[in-house]
Amino acid sequence: MSVQFRHLAFAFLLLKGTLVRAELSANSAISAVLPLSFIEKHCADCHDETTMKGDFRADLLGNNLTESASHTAWSRVLARVESGEMPPPKKERPAEEDILVALGALKSAFHKEALAKHGETGRVRVRRLNRLEYENTVRDLLGIDTPLRDLLPEDDLRDGFSNQTAALSISPVHIQQYMAAADRALEAASVRQAKPETKTHRFAFDHEAEKPWSAYAHNRLQCNLHGEDLHFFLDTHIEVPVALRQFEAVTRDTPGTFRIRITTEALGTTGGGDLIYSVWLASGGKRRELLGHFDAKHRQQSVVELTRSFDRGETLIIAPYRMAKVRIDAGYSVYAPDKQEKMPKGWHFLNNPNPPIATVGPAIVVKPLEITGPLIESWPTPGHKLLYGDDTELAPAAEVAKTARVPDSILRPVRAYRQLKDTVTVRLSADKVEPAIREVLNRFISRAFRRPAKAEEVELYQAMTRDRLAKGECLEVALNAAHRAVLCSPEFLFLVEQGPKLNSHELAARLSYFLWRSAPDVGLRKLADKGELTKHEVLRKEAARLIASPRFEAFVTDFLAQWLNLREIDATTPDRDLFPEYFESIGDGRQDVFLHDSLVGETRTYFRNLVERDLGATMLVSAPYAYLNQRLAEHYELPPVKGAALRRITLPADSVRGGLLTQASILKVTANGANTSPVLRGVWLLERIVGTPAPPPPPNVGSIEPDTRGATTVREQLAKHQSVKTCAGCHQKIDPPGFVLEAFDPIGRYRDYYRTTETGEKLKDLKAFFGAHYGQVKYLKGATVDTRSQLPGGIEVADVRAYKAALATRPELLARNFVRKLATFATGVHTEAGDELVIDAILKKTKASGFGLRTLIHEVVQSELFTQK
Fold first, then answer.
1. Mean pLDDT across 343-371
2. Which residues, 6+ apart, have CB-to-CB distance to 656 below 8 Å?
3. Of all residues in the chain, what percent carry a pLDDT higher than 90?
4. Which residues contact 591 (CB under 8 A, 6 or more apart)?
5. Is 288 a residue whose pLDDT tops 80?
6. What share of the chain is helix, strand, coil (3-state, %, to 5)?
7. Shortest CA distance to 559 belongs to which of 517, 509, 599, 522?
8. How many C-beta atoms lie closer than 10 Å to residue 50's C-beta?
9. Which residues contact 754 (CB under 8 A, 6 or more apart)?
10. What span, in angstroms and rounded, lies between the C-alpha atoms of 743 and 434?
11. Nearest 10 degrees: CA dihedral of 608, 610, 614, 617?
């Protein structure tokens, strides 16, 4: 059996053993004191054998939390009383002191039960790295930028998170794909040719290599060459973009990291306005990744500088943004180089191009690009040195092949459909092999396992290398056999924590994967080696360092993707007929990428700002400002904002915007592209923001299907649904917040009426931009939106403003839910009733800051939820 398979089999046993020990500990738990007298006095009248409201029997509550049914029932009591839902507003409410005493007793009982259940095993089982964490870890370990995530099976979700221990299974498919991913990563990190020369290139657009797009007939009107400069008057043909072929030729031979300087200027705009363009990473003439949208300043040259890695054959595409709309709004035609009255009779840009007529009107001027690279900090690269050590030398592979077996993947590798020439590999003098290999493996294993390597581990992997060398393999192949086994080992693939209290290396890993989504950096590793991270003040200082780093953006992106479900932003495409505003071109279905990207950008920027400024939990739902750019302000029908960059804008006093709930990204992921559902949005809000989720629906209850014809409203359908006894209780809780969000359509715009396709009033004077012209909208005016609601506490709210104001009066409720989500994300285990006592302590420490988000993160890190297994 191979080392990889033995290790992964061990992982299965490790997981099984954790479960068994937890079970044994749970059985040894002793009964705790439960607030039965409080329940009998204040709850039994409505929840006894006769009334049994909500299908709940308070008189049957057990006194032993280790019993599953009793644990579930008491958890329900805790959640409803904690949130203030019970006792209900119409009933006589116990004194606040009595409620706090009862809650304290119940939380203490749950906490004792949890301690007994988890025992030595802790609340967190051994956890596998998810796909994102794996890719990030390998990237930082080897210093590569090679995509690996898509090689691995999709991760399952639990409680909305993809890093949960209970959902991260492992299968034979995983094992096979980890081997493939390891091979790809090792090849990417290995130097295969001599050191490339760093050069600065100046790429003019009139170069012969650019003729495939510049001389294309359909592009002559859109993009004119003026000497070396490119003038964008319109978007290029969708199949023939401005893909820089000169740069493609450079990266095909010398991939790596390049610094790009793009100089632009806007000319001829109405009122001297600026224009916007986008930059894309491209391959094969196709857009692969958006690098950003930027401003072209009116009659002012501006420079954008980007630094990123390019694989073989990758290049850049530069594209203007909505130039057809800009041109038409300025009074020009998209089919002629000048205004219609100035065009000669019979002119046609294809069959009558001579004499040529210069295109005039609004334009983006792009100067020759300056690109420097590949940028090399050291040679061989840090990843190569980690794999093969400082003592090895690079030698021609053909020469090494005379004395050892060198595979074709090293001798004659093919990259981007071309065979590389003059390849190199590593070699060592015979007297240095054994000590050098041991040093290399010790360093690599320590980095990969996120702790100092053990002598027996180094010996195991050194034996593998020694065996390969004895069979005639070259040094690179022999070492990579060991490296591959390390990258497939449970110690690498899993976050193994011994517990019950985490040691410094375990804390370093947990902190780094929490706030950076990757393995610890050199600073954390040094502190871990000294055992310093178990000191609270050191742990706090390191958490602050990680939050202040640009790498904290990885936390912002992934945490919001999971907590707020922003991962689903691309899951639906808005209906073109109902929501033409979301498209650059209706005809070919091209979405407005700038708008789409700005939606998510707004939410990330807003949340990052809350953390940076340590603003309170109420700001999650309500704020006097928003982060907007030119396109978002237009989308929200707010006063104009100039430019592509998001910036903080004070909102009008009566604005519905401000806070997460009314951001278009949230409103899009809670809709299906054509319709909205108060149920879906209500469930999302209760689960993700408020922290008082409704129980799952009964089986075979059916669902509400929106009537796109406009014959019946969602409110009318839900009123019928609530008449069913089994549905009424939950929908009284779910529907009110869902109804207030009905004021927003599936693309996040505010609305007074529903758009329909069959039944409704024709909107004769309302036009939309279709990509090359303005036309009458195809949708009809349907029923008026009614956002009035009554919250479970009896509070009447007229609209989303009133609902946000009501939520803002309960900052502790919002903070409690946020802490639960943070702890779940940080540890890979969702919080339970037994954790509420610790959460109470966190909230008590952060109340003075108004439950500031950064303070909450710090206190989660300091809590036993984080520092213990």
1. 81
2. 662, 743, 750, 799, 800, 801
3. 71
4. 573, 574, 582, 583, 584
5. yes
6. 45, 15, 40
7. 517
8. 8
9. 710, 713, 782, 783, 785
10. 71
11. -130
Token pair, residue 183, equals 């091979």
Q: Answer whether 426's CB lies under 8 Å from 406's CB.
A: no
Average pLDDT, the chain: 89
Non-local CB neighbours of 431 within 8 Å, separated by 6+ positions: none
Q: What is the structure's pLDDT at 347?
A: 75
Residue of 192, 165, 174 lying closest to 387 (CA atoms): 192
Give all strands of the β-sheet with 275-283 in edge-to-edge order. Answer: 242-243, 314-320, 275-283, 286-296
How many CB atoms within 10 Å of residue 586?
A: 19
Q: What distance in Å separates the CA atoms of residue 703 and residue 681, rounded to the nearest whole number?
A: 14
Distance CA 466, CA 369 (A): 51
Residue 8 confidence (pLDDT): 47
- How many residues does the structure list for the chain? 869
Q: Measured between alpha carbons, how far is 445 from 115 in angstroms, rounded to an integer? A: 34
Burial class for 651, CB neighbours closer than 10 Å (0-12, 13-18, 19+): middle
**Could you tell me the pLDDT band of residue 221, with boundaries at 50, 70 and 90?**
confident
Higher pLDDT, 201 or 58: 201
- pLDDT(55) > 90: no
pLDDT value of residue 26: 39
Q: Tell me the three state secondary structure of residue 293.
A: strand
User: DSSP string spanning 48-105?
Assistant: STTT-GGG--GGG--S-TTSHHHHHHHHHHHHHHHTT-SS-TTSPPPPHHHHHHHHHH
Please, are residues 187 and 312 in contact by the beta-carbon 8 Å criterion? no
**What are the structure tokens assigned to 615, written together?**
């603003």
Q: Note the pLDDT of residue 811.
A: 97
State both tokens at 610.
């809350």
pLDDT in tens, 170-215: 999 999 999 999 999 999 999 999 999 999 999 999 999 999 998 8
Pair 846, 815: CB distance under 8 Å: yes
Assign residue 658 a region (left: φ > 0; alpha: ψ between -120 and 50; beta: otherwise): left
H or E stretch including 106?
Answer: helix 96-118
- Structure tokens given for 122: 């802790």
Phi and psi for 710 in degrees, rounded to 5?
85, 15
Q: What is the pLDDT of residues 699-724, one digit of tens each?
A: 665 555 555 455 466 766 666 556 55
How large is the average pLDDT for residues 7-33?
A: 44
In angstroms, the Cα distances linking 321 to 40, 232, 584, 631, 770 are 67, 10, 9, 11, 14
Q: How far lies 676's CA from each of 114, 282, 637, 705, 802, in Å? A: 41, 35, 20, 10, 20
Evaluate whether 235 touches 296 at the Cβ level (below 8 Å): no
> Are 280 and 316 spatial neighbours (Cβ–Cβ below 8 Å)?
yes
Q: How far is CA 847 from the centre of its chain?
A: 29
Give the bridge partners for 225, in sequence order: 230
Take residue 642 and report the two structure tokens written for it.
Answer: 């100039």
Average pLDDT over residues 786-804: 89
pLDDT (0 to 100) of residue 336: 85
Residue 245 has pLDDT above 70, yes or no: yes
pTM exceeds 0.90 for this model? yes
Q: DSSP character for 313?
A: T
Strands 256-267 and 275-283: what pairing?
unpaired
What letter represents residue 201's amino acid?
H
Count CA within 13 A, CB hemisphere, residue 428: 20
pLDDT by residue (tens digit) across 836-866?
Answer: 999 999 999 999 999 999 999 999 999 999 9
CB 310 within 8 A of CB 255: yes
Task: Compute CA distances 196 → 175, 378, 421, whole Å.
Answer: 36, 12, 13
